[in-house]
Amino acid sequence: MSEETLDVFNTRATIRPDLTQSTSGNAALDALRALGDRSSGLILGDTLGKGGMGLVRLGEQRSVGREVAIKTLKPGLDNEQAALSLLREGWVTGRLEHPNVVPVYDVGIDAAGQPFLVLKRIDGDVWTGLLREPEAVRETHDAQDVLEWHLRVLLSVTQAIRFAHDRGIVHRDLKPDNIMVGKFGEVYVLDWGIAAALDSDPSGRLPSKNTLCGTPAYMAPEMFDRAHADPQMDVYLLGGLLHEVLVGEAPHDGSTLSDAEADSRREVGVDRLDEPELSTLCAEALHPDPTARPEGAEAFARRLRDALDHRDSGRLAAQAATRAAALRTTEDAAQRRRLFAEARFAWQQALERWPENPQARQGLAEAAEEMVAWELDQGELSAAAALVREHPALRPELIERVRTAEDEHNALQAHLHALGRDQDESIGQRTRTFVAAVLGVAFIGMPLVIWTQEHRLVGYSGGVLGLGWSVAMLVSIGSLLFWARDSLSKTIVNRSFAKLMLAVPLGQLFLALVAIQNGTSLHALGHDHMIYWSAMCAATAAVVDARMLVPTLFYAVSWAVCGDRPEWTFPVIAAGDAVLCATLLAMWLPGLTLRRPPESPSE
User: Are the C-beta atoms of 151 and 306 separated by less than 8 Å?
Assistant: First the structure.
C-alpha cells in the first residue's frame, strides 16, 4: 500500500515496509529458491487463521510425524514484497530461540515458488479476545484475579522482547493481535515480519532500513518519523500493551494515520487510582520522548515485576483508604475508632508486604494525624499520646500539641497529687499522736497539781498564776513543734494541728492578761478556761472531725456545773483534758483516719 493512501488506513492494521528495494533481501530470497522445493515433507490441512498477508493452515511434518502450523501467503499475493516479508518473519523468528517466541521448524519455497514457514502449532487463543472476555480467562485459565493474569502475560511478552533486544532485534509491531496464549498458559510473541536489526545484516535476512511501519494505534512518535529501529520503540509498544490491559483500549484512538500520529506526540495519562504504580509505569513508557521512558525492556520488566509484587500491598492500602473515608463521615466515637483500627491494620499489612508503599505510608500518616487531633478534641489525651508513640513521623506541630497537652495534664496531676498528699492524714500521724500525748499529760497533770497545792497558792493572783502557766505552755508547745517541724509542716492537717496547739496557750495567755486586769481569782480563771476550751473543741469539730463534740460538750457541762461548785474546777478541768486527749488519740492512732479520704482526681 502506498503512503498516499495511509491516511485512510485502518489504524489497527500493520503498515509493512517496502522490502523490494533491498538488494541483499532479494539475494537471500534467490538463495532460498536455489534450494528447490522443500515442501514435499509437509501435508497441508485446514485453515487455522488469516492475517494481513498470511494464511495459517494446520499441517503435518512427515519427517518427524508432528502436527505443525504452516504459514503461507494469501492467494493472489505472489509478489517479491510479500514473499520477503513472510520469509523475514521466519528468518527473524528463527534467530530467537526463547520460550515466549514461537519456534520456527523450517523456512522454504514450495513447488510453485511460494515461500512458507513451518511453525509450532499453538493450541490457544489470541490475546485480543482474552482481553475482551474476562469470563473466558477465569474459566479457561482459572484466574482469580483477571488483571494480574493479563499482567503476567505482559511480563512474558516483555521477557521475549528483552531477549530479542539482546540478540539485536526490535519487534516494532507489538499489539494484542500478535500475542497468543496457549491453553496451558504459554505466551508467544508472533508476527516478527516487520522486525528490524539494530545492526546491518550482510545476509539480507534481517532488515534495518528506516521506513514507516507498525500499527498506528500503538506506534511510538519516532516510528512515524521513520527513525532508525531502536529498543525504546518496543518499550513504547510495551507501554501500549499495558495501556490496553489497564484501560481496555489502544493508546491511540484516532481513526486516521494523522490522528494516531497526533495522539502519539501527547503524553498519555492512565486514570487507575487503584493501580497507581502500574499507571505511572504506563504513562512513562508511553512518553513521547524516548529518553523519558524506562531504559530498555529490562527496566520495564523489572518495574512491572515490582508492581506485580506490590499489588497485594496496593489492594490492602486501597481497602484501608475505603475505611478511612468512612471514618471521616461518622459521628459515632466507637465506630470511628473501630474504622481507624481496621484501616490502620490494613495499612500496616500493606507496608509489611511493601515497606516503600507511598499510598500506605501517606494514608496511614494522614489518618493517624486526623485521629490524634480528634482524640485531643474529645479530651482523650492518653489515646492521642498513644497514637503519637505508634506513629512518631507525624507533623511536628501536632506532636508538639500533644506534648503541650501532656505537660499541662501532668502539671495538673502533680498539683492534684500535691493537694491529695497535703490532705493525707496518715502523714505525721505518729508525730501528732506523740505531741498530743505529751501535751495531754501536761494538761491533765497541771490542773491536778494546782488542785492538790491549792492551799499553798492562797494569796497569789489568779491572773499571775494563769500567765505563768500560759507562758510555760507556750514555751513547751513551741519546743515540741520545733522538734517535730519536718513532719508537722508537710500537710495541711499537720500544719493546722500545729497552729491549733499554738493557738491554745495564746488564747489562755490572753485570758490571763484579762484576769490580771480584772483581778480574777484562780477558780474564776479556771472556770473561764472551760468555756474557752469548749469553744476551741467546737471549732475543731466543725472544721476537722465531729468526734471533737465529745470534749466540747464535756467542757460546756463542766462550765455550767462548776459555776455553782467552784471547788470542783481543777479536778473537772483535768477530767476534761483527759477526755480531750482520749478523743485525739482515738482520732490519730495508726490505722485510723481523721476524716473521709479525699476523692481521687479521676472521680
Answer: no
Instruction: Count up the domains in the chain and report the number.
Output: 2
When computed from its CA atoms, the radius of gyration of the chain, rounded to whole angstroms, is 52
Q: pLDDT per residue over 383-433, tens digit each? A: 888 888 888 778 888 878 878 888 887 888 888 777 777 777 677 777 877
412 shares its domain with 453: no
Instruction: Compute the distance between CA of residue 299 and CA of residue 286 in angstroms, rounded to an integer.
Output: 14
- Listing DSSP states for 128-145 in one string gives HHHHH-HHHHHHHH--SS
Give domain status of residue 81, yes or no: no
Residue 226, pLDDT above cutoff 90: no
580 and 458, same structural domain?
yes
Report the C-alpha dihedral over residues 105, 111, 116, 118, rounded to 10 degrees.
-20
Say how far apart CA 577 and CA 278 lie, in whole Å.
Answer: 94
> What's the mean per-residue pLDDT of the chain?
84
For residue 126, give the DSSP letter: E
Beta strands (DSSP E) in 135-265 are 169-170, 179-182, 187-189, 196-197
The b-or-e profile of 294-306 (16+ CB within 10 A means b, else e) is: bebbbbbbebbee
| Measured CA distances, 503 to 333, 430, 478, 485 (Å) | 57, 21, 11, 16
Residue 48: phi and psi, rounded to 5, are: -95, -30
Domain boundary among 390, 406, 421: 421
Output 255-263 pairs: Cβ under 8 A, ≥24 positions apart.
255/11, 256/7, 256/8, 256/9, 256/11, 257/6, 257/7, 257/9, 257/11, 257/216, 258/7, 259/11, 260/11, 260/216, 260/217, 260/219, 261/216, 261/219, 261/221, 261/224
Q: Is residue 169 part of a domain?
A: no
Which residue type occupies 599?
E
Quote the CA–CA distance of 378 and 399 in Å, as a whole number. Answer: 17
Nine-digit cell string for 235: 518499550
Last residue of a domain, one of 363, 387, 421: 421
SS (H, E, C) 310-369: HHHHHHHHHHHHHHHHHHCCCCCHHHHHHHHHHHHHHHHHHHHHCCCCHHHHHHHHHHHH
* Domain extent at residue 575: 424-588
Over the stretch 501-525, which tens digit does the pLDDT of each residue have?
Answer: 788 888 888 888 888 888 888 888 8
Q: Residues 194, 16: contact at Cβ < 8 Å? A: yes
Whole-number Cα distances in Å, 381 to 324, 373, 384, 394, 409: 21, 10, 5, 16, 8
603 located within any domain: no
Residue 474: inside a domain: yes
- Decide: helix, strand or coil at residue 109: strand
Q: How far apart are alpha carbons 260 and 470 in whole angstroms? A: 116
